[in-house]
Amino acid sequence: MLWSLLCRSSTTIVHIIHIVFCRIFWLWGVIYNFLFLRKSPAEDKKPRFPFLKLHYVAIREVLNTLDPLDHINFSRASKSCRRLSTIKKPYTVELDFTEFPAIKFLNGPIEYIVRWTANREEEGTRKSRAYESYNILYKYSENSLDALKEFREYYLYIKSLMSVKIDTVVWDMSEFNRLGRTNVDCLRLNAPEFPALYVHGFRQRQEELHYILDNLKYTKSLEIWVDVIEPLQLRIADTLEELRIQNGMSITLDYIMSLEMRRLTFRNTYLTDEDLNVFFKSWIEIKSHLNLERFEINLWKSREDFMAIGLRDIPYRMGPMRPGPYPTYVPSQGSFEVTRNDGRTASICAYRLFSQFNVIVFARLSDLN
User: Where is the F-box domain positioned along the sequence (predicted)?
Assistant: First the structure.
């Protein structure tokens, strides 16, 4: 009897110990779920789609439907996502080195933009306007120096993720006086060449402008809208196809005659109708600018003065009015059709552009058809 009682007592104790340990493990499970695996009721009921367990081909097809901004965000979700996101699809981009920089993806009808901002409330927001065909993702940065650092890191990341081809670099010298050369060196290291460079700035030193021009390799187009302290003496290779100088106060006729680009634009110059007359005669006599396609320059006098002096001793016939490159160009009556000695015809057109009088020479009329 005593033995039977002891056996029952032992069984009871073991049972109690089992219950206690079960309660302890249950409680630990509750705490663990609460701290580490907590989900909202909606998430508990929501079925989870195992995207990363799909076949590789299916995953690639889904990723190909993402816009570049979503594609980059997906790649940062995990190491697996990063491996899956590496693509060879080429993206054409524009890099804007401004106070708060931007990267623009130019593929397709919609322009996708990542822009840094000083407004904390805009962090992570996206804005789009269908009628302007752009979609912007904002990234907050406390100041422009931090923004520039993040901008460079972001570019290097997307360059490692996808095939990136720089189409245009926009450089605002006014914002980077202290770090201009450092940024130039960094860009030169990571982008050996690109087609187009736009440089803007106010009251800059010529040596700083030339550091940009001499150390970056732009292959097709250069636009300079820089107000320099000293007279501007530019050293630009003739291998470019297009040159546009917006503040051309120091541009001379001799400098223009030395250029061989196909497309030339000069604004705010002090060139005269007499200078244009020399330029036109040189082209007609096949002495210079043999491959010229388009030439634009501003004049300070009237259309009548241009006809009397700029076209002096130049045979021409009146042609149709030609539309300007932008709606702000208002045509002034008809065009002046002149013929080069080898038979090639050019159309000289006069436009009113705000308070100025502009002349454009269309030397390849097929572009107007």
Answer: 51-90
Q: How many CB atoms lie within 10 A of CB 59?
A: 16
Count of other CB atoms within 10 angstroms of residue 255? 16
| Integer Rg of the chain from CA | 33
| DSSP codes, 81-106 | HHHHH----EEEEEEEESSS-EEEE-
Residue 143 falls within a domain, yes or no? yes
User: Residue 222 pairs with which residues in a beta bridge?
Assistant: 197, 243
Taking the model in full, what pTM does it have? 0.80
In a domain, 276, yes or no: no
Determine the Cα–Cα distance for residues 16 and 5; give it in Å rounded to an integer.
17
Strand ranges in the chain using DSSP code E only, listed in sequence order? 90-97, 102-105, 111-117, 126-129, 134-140, 163-172, 194-204, 218-228, 242-245, 263-266, 294-299, 317-319, 330-331, 335-339, 345-353, 356-362
Cβ-contact 354, 328 below 8 angstroms: yes
Task: Round to whole Å and give the CA distance between 276 and 282.
Answer: 10
- The one-digit pLDDT tens for each residue of the chain (369 residues) are 434 443 444 555 545 555 544 544 444 444 344 434 444 555 455 555 455 556 656 666 777 778 889 888 888 888 878 887 787 678 899 999 988 899 999 988 899 999 999 999 999 999 987 777 889 999 999 888 889 889 999 999 999 888 889 999 999 987 655 567 888 998 999 888 999 999 998 888 888 888 999 999 999 999 999 888 777 778 888 889 999 999 888 899 999 999 999 999 999 899 999 999 999 999 999 999 999 999 999 988 888 889 999 999 999 999 998 998 889 999 988 899 999 999 999 999 999 888 788 999 999 866 665
- Report yes or no: 94 and 115 within 8 Å, Cβ to Cβ: no
Question: Is 55 part of a structural domain of the chain?
Answer: no
The label of the residue with tokens 């401004």 reads 98
- C-alpha dihedral sign at 246, 249, 255, 257: positive
Q: How many domains does the chain have?
A: 1
Domain of residue 162 covers: 85-235
Angle at 94 between CA 250 and CA 172, to 5 degrees: 40
- Whether 285 maps to a domain, the answer reads no
